[in-house]
Write a structure and sequence with these properties.
Helix content is 36%, strand content 13%. With 310 residues, the protein is an alpha/beta fold. The longest helix has 17 residues. Helix 11 crosses helix 12. It has two domains: 256 residues, Alpha-Beta Barrel (TIM Barrel), CATH 3.20.20.140; 45 residues. The strands form two sheets. A seven-stranded parallel sheet has the order 1-2-3-6-7-8-9. A two-stranded antiparallel sheet has the order 4-5. The structure holds zinc ion (2 copies). The site of one zinc ion has 5 residues, from loops.
């Protein structure tokens, strides 16, 4: 079966986009070139009526008021192509805070919710003890430099990634693969039980963006997913199916470790959406790579959420 839609597209209103040619008009051209019938914009959006659980300069900018500018950029009628306006909000698993309230959500055609933005440390996922110790060790080194205050030293040490901090971990006590794997299971479960989401998930289409894909630690995904057994996936996906919450299939979904989880989801009765997570107009055709997963899972139109069926 052909991939006929892509409902995970970021245009330049997402500040991580970095492509000023990523306009609605250019995406429309690209979508028509590859024969899509439906596309949905899903810029990063934090509903400003929800207090941020921790500082985030990124989400401070990505408000509803800012993101909904896109509505005025969408032409009224594009023959052969349906265009939807949704959003990719945030779920801060470590705080059980969802970045989209009911009133804002109901202004959208659909909502994508990620539970695996694990690169957003101390906002989505807590830092491991190894990282906390490495930051302290590094701050001590910075403090020895003339003119650097302890505050500045601490702030500099917070800017480094897990990988960059590794040389400053005197000893490693945390199994990072297991830590993230456990986090993804718990964040999926707590998202399903989140009270804010419960207040509107049966009133509008909601799909989980890149489920169980650890953003920023993608190369570790096979190891991380191998720690999650079929029964655990079955329990989690049965809740999603029962609530009518979909799962996103992207261009990385045909890897064996991902096919295992999507096959369980299908068996549980979950419905799917397709999304490329594009942040630039180049490489638009990568949504067609989802056909590998569609075929491997033997999906038909009935396996997809109603709002993506045209
Ligand atoms: Zn995402
Ligand atoms: Zn995205």
């Amino acid at each position: 079966m052909r991939a006929w839609h892509d409902v995970h597209i970021h245009n330049y209103l997402s500040t991580c986009c970095g492509d000023n040619q990523a306009t609605v008009d250019n995406y429309i051209k690209a979508a028509k070139d590859i024969g899509l019938k439906l596309m949905g914009f899903a810029n990063h959006t934090w509903d400003e009526s929800i207090p941020l659980p921790a500082p985030s300069s990124f989400y401070k900018r990505q408000s509803m008021a800012f993101e909904m500018q896109i509505k005025s950029q969408i032409p009224e009628n594009v023959p052969g192509l349906k265009i939807l306006v949704g959003a990719e909000t945030e779920y801060c698993g470590m705080y059980d805070v969802l970045g989209m309230g009911k009133e804002a959500a109901l202004q959208l055609d659909f909502l994508l919710i990620p539970h695996t933005h694990v690169h957003m440390r101390d906002f989505v996922m807590p830092s491991t003890d190894d990282v906390i110790n490495a930051r302290a060790n590094l701050a001590e080194i910075f403090e020895k430099i003339d003119g650097i205050t302890p505050e500045r030293a601490a702030s500099l040490s917070r800017k480094l990634s897990e990988e960059e901090l590794e040389p400053f971990m005197k000893e490693k006590n945390v199994d990072y693969v297991k830590f993230v794997s456990d986090f993804m299971v718990e964040s999926f479960r707590s998202l399903m039980n989140n009270e804010t989401l419960k207040s509107y998930s049966d009133l509008m289409p909601v799909s989980v963006a890149h489920p169980f894909q650890p953003v920023g630690s993608y190369s570790l995904r096979p190891d991380m997913l191998s720690l999650i057994d079929d029964n655990t996936f079955g329990d989690l996906f049965s809740i999603a199916a029962g609530r009518g919450i979909g799962l996103e299939i992207n261009n990385c979904a045909h890897a064996p470790e991902a096919i295992r989880l999507f096959a369980i989801a299908k068996e549980c009765g979950c419905k799917f959406t397709l999304g490329s997570d594009l942040h630039a107009t180049s490489g638009f055709s990568r949504i067609l790579d989802t056909e590998k997963a569609i075929n491997a899972l033997d999906l038909t139109e009935d396996d997809f959420m109603d709002f993506v069926r045209v």
